Amino acid sequence: MTKSERERLFLDLFQNRRSSLQRLCYGFLGSSQDVEDLFQEIMTNVWNSLPSFRGESALNTWVYRIAVNTALVYRKKMKRGEELPELPDAGISAHQNLEQKERLAALRRAIASLADQDRLIVTLLLEGLSYKEIAEITGLTVNYVGVKISRSKQTIEQLMTEVNHGGI
After folding, report:
1. What is the CATH code for 95-168?
2. Is the domain 1-76 a CATH 1.10.1740.10 member?
3. What is the pTM of this model?
4. 164 to each of 23, 91, 101, 102, 154, how far by Cα in Å?
5. Residue extent(s) of CATH 1.10.10.10 domains in the chain
6. What is the pLDDT of residues 26-47, one digit of tens each?
7. pLDDT (tens digit, 9 = 90+) per residue, 105-141?
8. Boundaries of CATH 1.10.1740.10 in the chain?
9. Which of 65, 43, 44 is nearest to 54 (CA)?
10. 62 Rama sector, left if φ>0, alpha if ψ -120 to 50, beta otherwise
11. Within a 10 A sphere around the Cβ of 40, how many other Cβ atoms?
């Protein structure tokens, strides 16, 4: 890969994957400052690894794998016992009613309460990745990804039901 090809590919990745990678960072961390730091670390690792990309997996899967590994290492460095992240309200318009905002906040809390691996899988699913892509990124089997998604959906549903009935 020439320097020009590497720069072009990196710029394309940066422009087209920025939002989804930042959402992944929010899923791991929550804080705006930390998210930007983690995102920069991910992009540095992508840049440094580009020459070794062999095309054995899809480029998108390869980038997510770097992002997940970087986020896991980054999070281990952080202090233990930090509160789980509250995701930003990027998708809420000023005209949505309070009930919708409360349901969305409850959904975010439910997702944030999942175990790290389950939260990662749900985040990747919400980004539109297939079970196969999620399996490649996480190192799990496709069937186990399906099991984890099913269990996570049940847990989220249960938590949301409790919210709707005043339990939380």
Report:
1. 1.10.10.10
2. yes
3. 0.64
4. 26, 21, 13, 10, 15
5. 95-168
6. 877 765 668 888 999 999 999 9
7. 778 888 888 888 898 899 888 888 899 989 988 889 9
8. 1-76
9. 65
10. alpha
11. 11
| DSSP secondary structure string for all residues of the chain | --HHHHHHHHHHHHHHHHHHHHHHHHHH---HHHHHHHHHHHHHHHHHHGGG--SSS-HHHHHHHHHHHHHHHHHHHSPTTPPPPPPP-TT--TTS-HHHHHHHHHHHHHHHTS-HHHHHHHHHHHTT--HHHHHHHHT--HHHHHHHHHHHHHHHHHHHHHHHTT--
Token digits for 1? 């890969």
Tokens coding 30: 């929550």
* Tokens encoding 90: 């990027």
- Total residues belonging to the chain: 168
The encoded tokens of residue 111 equal: 């997702």
